[in-house]
Amino acid sequence: MRVEGKLKKDKKTKKLAKRINAGEIALINHIDLDEVAAKSLVEAKIKLVINAAESISGRYPNVGPSILMKENILIIDNIGMEAFDELNEDDEIIIEDGIIYRSDKKIGSGQVMDAKLVVEKTRQAYENLEVELDRFIDNTIEYAKKEKGLILGDVEIPAMKTKYEDRHVLVVVRGHNYKDDLEAMISYIEEVKPVLVGVDGGADAILEFGYKPDVVVGDMDSVTDEALKAAGEIVVHAYTDGRAPGLKRVEDLGLEAVVFPSPGTSEDIAMLAAYEYKAKLIVALGTHSNMIDFLEKGRRGMASTFLVRLKIGSRLIDARGVSMLYQSRLKLKYVFALIATALFPVAIVVSQSPKVQTLMQLLSIKIKLLLQI
User: Fold this and answer.
1) Residue 233 domain flag
2) Are residues 103 and 158 in the same domain?
3) Do 35 and 104 meet the contact criterion of CB atoms below 8 Å apart?
4) Based on the number of CB atoms within 10 Å of its own CB, is 349 exposed (0-12), middle (13-18) or buried (19 or more)?
5) How far are the Cα atoms of 339, 340, 363 from residue 353, in angstroms, in the given order?
6) Which domain holds residue 71?
7) DSSP state of 157
8) Can you tell me whether residue 90 is helix, strand or coil?
């Protein structure tokens, strides 16, 4: 195997995917490559992935490498941070049998991951899943005890200008199958007009489909400037001590933001705000709702998510369920509009008839007499 090309590097895979060009080589440092990151690389039409870390560590069965294999994108795996630091943005490199060269100098090497190896590593990860599940449950319970104030009123909901009361709220997270789910929700968005809330990169997903986010919630690490500028309101997720690293980025753009100190995830506080401001229904799209989702986010438990969903209860529904239950109907007004459109040319032709014109005049006189006009 021999591959040549220009290199683009970033420790944040999703950031890299936004600026890498088709046919270039992606250099990342991403242990347990997740689904969303892998799909973003596929969409960028890259040539090859070089990973400083293990693309499948064996802790759990992550699907990112399988997605790349389906698109015939190989991975040079686990080259280490020394080689990662040695390689520079826009380097022209050659990879031959897993060995990386720059100007005939060997920089490092890694394991060539093909489809067969990915299948084997994924199988081993499934065997380890029970151990990881035990840890995950223990951590969830431990942190739930610490974060119970999230639903007991200890966390203050900041004042917001967005009007949630008695409205549907669609919370969009750039998670599993988010594009397919958003596509299925178009009729719902057009007819119900929900409040559109983008959680970090979810705001860009809303923009991609031709809408503007009413609210952007997050720590501002994966949302574009365009989405922030288009948003009706910005909520920066801060640490419980009030520190909000993402606020500086918003202010540097000349924008205002609400700061929301809270434990848990940004999608949790997006739902909690909608609930506290009396949203009629909260629809979750692409949100993280199972162990694999949270492990892919690097979280050891889902305490805050469990607590928030426990609180908002029946007001929350998954977008996939909405798209299945909510079938856009051909409303009567549309039927009448179609009929009127079809009859319009007929009416024009008929109205030119002398007999019809005489009849219309008689009807007009009759109506005037009845109304005593």
Assistant:
1) yes
2) no
3) no
4) exposed
5) 22, 20, 15
6) 2-113
7) P
8) coil
The residue among 263, 252, 258, 269 whose CA lies nearest residue 231 is 258
Q: What is the pTM of this model?
A: 0.68
pLDDT given at position 241:
87
Indicate if 357 and 298 belong to the same structural domain. Answer: no
User: Which runs of consecutive H residues, i.e. helices, occur in 277-331?
Assistant: 291-296, 303-312, 319-325
β-pairing, 92-96 with 2-9?
antiparallel
SS3 for 173? strand
Residue range 275-299, pLDDT digits in tens: 999 999 999 998 866 666 666 665 5
Tokens coding 340:
């009127």
| Structural domain includes residue 52 | yes
Q: Supply the pLDDT for residue 330.
A: 45
Residues 6+ apart with CB under 8 A from 149: 155
The total number of structural domains that make up the chain: 3
Per DSSP, which regions of the chain are E strands? 2-9, 25-28, 48-51, 75-77, 92-96, 99-102, 105-109, 111-113, 168-173, 195-199, 215-218, 233-238, 258-261, 281-285, 316-318
CB 284 within 8 A of CB 272: no
> At 253, which CATH number?
3.40.50
Instruction: Return the structure tokens found at 293.
Output: 């989702």
Residue 122 counted as domain residue: no
Question: How many angstroms separate the CA atoms of 75 and 72, rounded?
Answer: 10
Distance CA 150, CA 106 (A): 52
CATH assignment of the domain containing 38: 3.50.30.10
Residue 4 and residue 93 in contact, taking contact as beta carbons nearer than 8 Å: yes
